[in-house]
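Sequence and fold
=================
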Amino acid sequence: MKFTINRSAFISQLNNVLRAISSKTTIPILTGLKMVVANDSITLTGSNSDITIESVMSASNEDYELKIAEPGSIVLPARFFSEIVKKLPDKHVTIEITSGFQADITSGSAKFQINGQDAENFPHLPEVEANNTVVLANDMLKEVIRQTVIAVSKQESRPILAGIHVTLHDGLLTAVATDSHRLAQRKVQLDGVGDVNYDVIIPGKSLDELSGMISDVDDDVKMQVTDNQVLFIFGNTHFYSRLLEGNYPETSQLIPDTSDTTVEVDAGTFLSSIDRASLLSHESRNDVVKLTIKPGEKLVRISGDSPDIGMVEEDVATSAVEGNDLEISFNPNYMKDALRSFGQSTVKISFTSPLRPFTLVPTEDTENFVHLITPVRTF
């Protein structure tokens, strides 16, 4: 195996693949980077058994300035190899396997020699059928992930809640996440998906990582599903994630369809108010903020206190407030996460009682995005 490549272009692809490689793994070879050199391309693969990222560099792409002298394959220690390549002095780098699984890395006057492993021992990727492919706009996919991943559970006691439940039926893509204290649900109508149906649970960590990668691409993202893996294809990158096994809880009946009190607020302004109130609530043992609503007086007030520090009260500007008087307490962090996911839109918050979950929806699109938060009992 021997090839020469533009070093900076090589580093950008290395950085992509390194996202999937962890130094903490029970499978030692997964701390390595798999490199397969064909006659006209190089494929880099990294995996931590949960996600796998594969990046293909084609000799036909002039940016790589790729010259392949001899095909072959090897697994190299990922972190060490990437640090070497980043610190090399010249514009180009040449990598050659001289004997066995030993790689020579040459650039300018610098030469490194590092030990690798047999690429045949690296776990093989699953075969994914292309006949269930769905094409997703990259900005839409990134937004769906951003708006739902905040509600994914961080607790290990219920592993299934660490995922986002993604279904596709009759062209309607639905993504739901809940940690049993809050819930985020986003729906998108897709065109041209035919009779493809999905019902999968994708780990939130995987989708968070994917979101960071697709922010820099202009291409649409292709999504394909097998029995236990989901594959996202964009640009020259293949992003695999394992799927969570089990049944996701039925969440549709959790979202109330009636309300006794409603408030419409600007998401950004309300977020700033909650942020200020939480300065004191974070110092309190129970960390809650109280919302007092008196529609007859057009009053919506946020308050928070800490016995050791003091208290805060602030009246909230609203565009509409209707219904019954209400006092309700909630975790300010949950509210802040929800409000950030709405951006700068106007949000309608609907309450039924002080102890029942309440919902937040954008006033311009009430059907396709809802966030639900469970209040905190303070008495």
